[in-house]
From TrEMBL:
Gene3D superfamilies for the chain: Winged helix-like DNA-binding domain superfamily/Winged helix DNA-binding domain (1.10.10.10)
One protein family per Pfam: MarR_2
Species the sequence originates in: Actinophytocola gossypii
Entry protein name: MarR family transcriptional regulator
InterPro entries associated with the record: HTH_MarR-typ, MarR/SlyA-like, WH-like_DNA-bd_sf, WH_DNA-bd_sf
Domain HTH marR-type residue range list: 21-153
Amino acid sequence: MDPLEEGRRNWLAHDSGPVHQVSAATALTRGQQIATSAMARVLAEHDLTFAQLEILVRLADRPAPLGMGELGDAVKLHPTTAARTVARLERARYVERVDDEDDRRVTRVRVSERGLAVTRTALGRLREVGFGLDGLSRVDTRRLTELVRPIIDD
């Protein structure tokens, strides 16, 4: 049984609206659940969430510490969510807060050596499981990204 086709039949039977949109949303949701589950298992080995890993990767690429607002914007998180995520990373000693020399009200954050090590290890393991997208080719993953971009950028 094809779960997407079965879902499509159910949506049609219940007159759920434009079937092509409902079917696409169902496929996107199921695919996201499967990919997230595969990544969550790997990230749990390091007591990380995907949002935390995103922040670590963003900080690892920066030669200078980032302010909380900059960091939230960079990973598309609300400033409050970014601050809570950074606080958890700080408790794990994966990041360090740094006072801004020009403005004491601004707190900046940088990745620690421990954070860099866990980032490299977690990324290596995620590559091993194909970020939960093992069934897709490189061309397909690029196509998927471009298809989803308008939803994300909206």
